[in-house]
Amino acid sequence: MVTLNLPDFDCKTKQVDGKPYIFDLLRRKYVRLSPEEWVRQHIVNLLLTHYSYPKALIRTEGGLTLNMTQKRTDVVAFDRQGQPFLVVECKAPHIPLTQAVFDQVARYNHVHNAPYLVITNGLTHYCCGIDYTTSEVRFLDDFPAFV
User: Where is the Type I restriction enzyme R protein N-terminal domain (predicted)?
Assistant: First the structure.
């Protein structure tokens, strides 16, 4: 896998029928290692180890219904009251972070109403905060700390 612009971590991998798998700490099982999964696992590690998000308050590959269609949110972190706090959309490193990716995470956030959104391809990351009272969106220099 390609080296990402995220901290390295000691991940467990294995081969099954010639295909790579990575151990997902949150789902507690091995999952197929795709370029997007590589980014997702690095983001989860970043939230856990560098920003002190509790493992119990992060969900990966969570389902949601949007316009009567089933979708999956890559990563959602919840606050201590169980409300969505941060929604992360992960893309493979070779996928550019375009307006379409921003639009995708914004659509998912119509369901979650989280105050923070992140898009990343593991090389580039954009984080923004949303003020729902003023409808203002501001880009942040860093991921939000867990509160």
Answer: 35-144
Domains and CATH numbers, the chain: 13-140 (3.90.1570)
Q: Are 146 and 46 in contact (CB under 8 A)?
A: no
Residue 112's pLDDT band, with cuts at 50, 70 and 90, is confident
Tell me the two tokens of residue 72: 């999956």
DSSP state of 40: H
Pairing, β 84-90 against β 69-78:
antiparallel
**Tokens, residue 28:** 């507690």
The identity of residue 85, as a single letter, is: F
Strand order across the 13-16 sheet: 13-16, 19-24, 29-32
Q: What is the dihedral of CA 44, 50, 54, 55, to 10 degrees?
A: 30
What's the whole-model pTM score?
0.90
- The sign one gets for the Cα dihedral 15, 17, 19, 21 is negative
